[in-house]
Design brief:
The complex is a heterodimer of chains A (about 300) and B (about 200).
Chain A (H helix, E strand, L loop, with lengths): L3 H30 L8 H11 L10 H18 L16 H21 L3 H32 L4 H10 L5 H17 L18 H4 L5 H26 L10 H28 L8 H20 L3
Helix pairs in contact in A: 1-9, 1-10, 2-9, 3-4, 3-9, 4-5, 5-7, 5-11, 6-9, 7-9, 7-11, 9-10
Chain B lengths: L1 H17 L3 H26 L2 H29 L11 H19 L5 H19 L3 H21 L5 H29 L13
Helix pairs in contact in B: 1-2, 1-4, 1-5, 2-3, 2-6, 3-7, 4-5, 5-6, 6-7
Classes of the chains: A mainly alpha (about 300), B mainly alpha (about 200).
Chain lengths: ~300, ~200
Amino acid sequence: MNHNLTNIFQGMILIILSPFFMGTLNKIKALMRGYKGPSVLQVYYDLSKLSKKDTIRSGRSSFVTEYGPVMALSVAVTCSFMIPVIFVGSKNSLGNLILIVFLLGGIKLADALIGLDSSSTFGGMGTSRELFLSMLAEPVMFLIIMYLYFQYGTLNIFEITLNNLHMSTTTAGDILAFVSFFIVLIVENARLPIDNPETHLELTMIHEAMVLDLSGRDLLLIELASMIKFAIFITMIVNIFIPFGISTSFAIPLIIEAAGLFLAKVFAVLFVIAMIEVLIAKSRLFRAPDLIAVSFSLIIAAISFSRFID
Amino acid sequence: MAQLFISIIIISGILISGTSRMKILISSFAFQSLAIAVLCIGLGYTYNESHFYILALITLTIKVVAIPHIINKSIRALKVNRELNLIVNGYYSFILSSVYIIIIAVFLGRNSNLYFQTGVFLVLVGATVLVGRKKAITQMFGFLVIENGIILFEISSVKIPLILEAGMALEVLVLALIMGVIIFQINKTFDTINTDILADLKE
């Protein structure tokens, strides 16, 4: 039996939950700083407010600004259908990791083109920074995929999850690869040591600078796409490295247990991200390669340990 | 469980090799020593030897508590919290540490155990820190990390007598104490702890 329909269903759950994850992250950060903070549903309210607003485009912008947000969101949605969330079947045709990484690169392409399109100063600057960082982060991502291939013998993310589920021991390589993937998550989603998502100061922003010219529905689509991308990365790190409890059959209690465990694991990852964001200040842009070099070094260590050292 | 502590040791080793922040340097060194102490306790429990427990005790008291405390104190007195102008900068140090791991994996991969390889890695990282830094207080970390590597050698297979091991650990403690005093004096005399300036002495 082919599980593509199930994958689409659980991908839709992920898409619906992705603003909730962002709201939860903001709430945890607010609680850690000692104030009450907006409700976890605030991100949904913001998105619905954006959907009611008029869309104004710069007179200089071309068809790229018109279709770019649609492309970003459609790529993100396609990508979310390709990863396991709470259920993993035995036979899967979707879910090649290299394809997922390329599709996630599509969001970046759309963002970069939109940033350049309206020929504003900040757009170009933000695009340059974003591509500078992703140029460094992408090789590390492919090294992580290489490690996963060496370790589990497949490139399909569903089969990696299944194989990891049946593996009883955790090796040093797994832990090193987990930390490495976590750093890539932070860099790719422009979280704190790289980019502060809370400010709109022109000297520091990366992601915000690219979408500065958008408004209304366009901004809604781009924001939703980047939230889905964040949710996809968290789901990937959870289901690749700590997949225990994920359901392998359609029994209702198993599915409920898997959903509960999935939410708990996601909250744990969000808690760690929030703790880093509260504790650490943003570092200079040219210090970012150092962080990625740590990630590179860790994944090289993981590959060496899994391949050459028993 | 040993795998977890080995990975903590490697992560902290990589961080030590390239970071320029004193806080990260001290805390990752303390974590590394803690992981080594826990490894020693685990091995002592497995092989039922008192030797490992004594090693763990020495590591815990000297490297997890005493040395970070002394260094923290001298840093507060000197007001250095980061090091700029490294000889080998952070980026290249991180890449270099991954090269070390590849070299270890290729040459020592099949015929030695995990503790030995991690020990070699720590010795190489310590040497990098020793060579690549300019400030005396960070150069001292090179010695400390090398000593951690030697402890890992010992618990792998190379049996060093306990008296020697204890001597080394005490030597490191004395090193930290003396460096704390000397660095303070250097700072007082030259207004810097950059070791390059010391060469200006010769006339």
